[in-house]
Automatic annotation (TrEMBL):
One of its GO terms (cellular component) is cytoplasm. The keyword Metal-binding does not apply. SUPFAM superfamilies: Nucleotidylyl transferase. InterPro entries: Cyt_trans-like, PPAT, Rossmann-like_a/b/a_fold. It comes from Geodermatophilus nigrescens. This is Phosphopantetheine adenylyltransferase. It catalyses: (R)-4'-phosphopantetheine + ATP + H(+) = 3'-dephospho-CoA + diphosphate. Pfam families: CTP_transf_like (PF01467). The keyword Transferase applies.
Amino acid sequence: MCPGSFDPVTNGHVDVIARAAGLYDELVVAVLVNPGKAGLFSVDERMELLREAVADLPNVVVDSFSGLLVDYCRSHDVPVVVKGLRAVGDFEYELQMAQMNRELAGIETLFVPTAPQVGHLSSSLVKQIATFGGDVSRLVPKAVLDRLLAKRDGSA
């Protein structure tokens, strides 16, 4: 399982998902539902954009979850969580989460370092750049670019 907010999905996310999909028969990519946080895209929109972004990966299933990640993993027999790492700061946070997930439910975590060409990407930076009219065409899948532009221009 590869969890995240994916608001929006970036080429960095797609890189990690594609590489993880090559390791497993099935990979669940799950969007976290956080009712306390309003995203740019709704959970349904994020799931749709993810499905488009990974359409060429037949063993990837897109889903959503709320609550604890370990509860989703237990109820769906998911033994491994895959997390992408961009920098040392990511590792410090994710290591703590991995240790807690293992303590709570015996869930293992596989860390996948992002490819150097996408290691600088984050959804929040992409949103900020797009909001101010910057070019994000090399940072996100085509479907995401189209939706970002539509939102910026007020047609979505």
